Structures are given as structure tokens and as C-alpha cells.
């Protein structure tokens, strides 16, 4: 039987409305992440939290040691849930994330968090390339408006484009409710 882990990516204070880098729909996404977090805990499945800190004190957000760089209260880790600290977009780069998964014999990962167009995209592609079966909970992820070539791309379009891309070749992309309903049927 496959062993799965929930990986919660960068659900940190700076991404929330009072933070330095607020995301569109972050509260709703964090609520969905908390819902699946509770389901994983109840089922006894592995949960891994990933927390980003930049290394420079003048970073635009997630500055070292700041309150903004801490995990948000909606998804705080419990004592048996490791927190992987990263300094790059890809949670596997320069961290022990792969070793944490291997120690637990994990073969499938479920991903939620922020930002859809950066750290979610990077960890999903890397996990798939490393041979993990990957599921992304699209409504438990958040992002923000982007600008390219003088045009503002709304967060919903950014999110949709990245989820469509991941669904095309890297992961199953489903809603939290769809995922939990499928798990209850197993």
C-alpha cells in the first residue's frame, strides 16, 4: 500500500492580510489546508510543514527570525510534524525534505500552500521528477496578481494557468472536498 504525506508549503504570516506580501484568497486557502491537515492527522498519515525564510535582512517578506516568517496559526505543526526550513523556491533544494520523505517510506505526496506560481509549482515538479505520485489541492493554494510586460495578470488567472500546467503533466489537481471524499471511499 502506498504511503502518503501532506506537504504544507509556506502557509506563513506574511502572506495573510496583515503581512508584508498578502495573497489573494489566502484565508480561504488556509482554511482548506487546515481541513485536510486535520484529516491527515486523524488518519495517522505523515504531515510535513515547509517554511521559507530569505537569508537577507532586507528581503521583501519572510525576513529571518520575523513574525511574518512564522507558520500561520491555522496550520501550526504538532510536535511529531517536522518543519523543513528552506531558502529557495524549491522545497527540495538545500533541505532535508527528500530525506524526511524517504525515512517515512513515502511514495505519494499531497501538496497545499503558497504561492501557486512559485513554491507550489517548484515542489510539485520536483516531487514528480523524483518519482513521487503528486496530488495538488487547488483550492488550498493561493497566489497574487502578477505583472508582465506592463500588463497585470489577475491572481485567479495566474493560479488557473499554473494549476492547468501542473495537471497537464505533473500531478492530479483536485479540490480539497474531492480529495477528502475519495479518501473516505478507500
Automatic annotation (TrEMBL):
The keyword Hydrolase applies. GO terms for molecular function: hydrolase activity. Keywords: Hydrolase. Gene3D superfamilies: Isochorismatase-like (3.40.50.850). It comes from the Bacteria. SUPFAM superfamilies: Isochorismatase-like hydrolases. Transmembrane segments: none annotated. Residues 5-163 form the Isochorismatase-like domain. Signal peptide: none annotated. Its EC number is 3.5.2.19. This is Nicotinamidase-related amidase. The gene is sttH_2.
Amino acid at each position: 500500500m502506498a504511503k502518503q504525506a501532506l506537504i504544507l508549503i509556506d502557509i506563513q504570516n506574511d502572506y495573510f492580510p496583515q503581512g508584508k506580501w498578502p495573497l489573494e484568497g489566502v484565508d480561504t486557502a488556509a482554511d482548506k489546508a487546515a481541513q485536510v491537515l486535520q484529516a491527515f492527522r486523524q488518519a495517522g498519515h505523515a504531515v510535513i510543514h515547509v517554511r521559507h525564510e530569505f537569508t537577507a535582512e532586507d528581503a521583501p517578506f519572510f525576513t529571518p527570525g520575523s513574525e511574518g516568517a512564522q507558520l500561520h496559526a491555522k496550520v501550526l505543526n504538532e510536535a511529531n510534524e517536522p518543519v523543513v526550513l528552506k531558502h529557495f523556491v524549491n522545497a527540495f533544494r538545500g533541505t532535508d525534505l527528500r530525506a524526511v520523505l524517504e525515512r517515512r517510506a513515502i511514495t505519494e505526496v499531497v501538496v497545499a500552500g503558497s504561492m501557486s506560481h512559485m513554491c507550489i509549482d517548484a515542489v510539485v515538479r520536483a516531487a514528480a521528477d523524483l518519482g513521487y505520485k503528486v496530488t495538488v489541492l487547488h483550492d488550498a493554494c493561493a497566489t497574487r496578481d502578477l505583472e508582465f510586460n506592463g500588463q497585470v495578470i489577475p491572481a485567479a488567472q495566474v493560479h488557473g494557468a499554473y494549476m492547468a500546467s501542473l495537471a497537464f503533466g505533473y500531478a492530479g489537481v483536485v479540490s480539497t472536498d474531492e480529495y477528502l471524499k475519495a479518501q473516505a471511499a478507500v
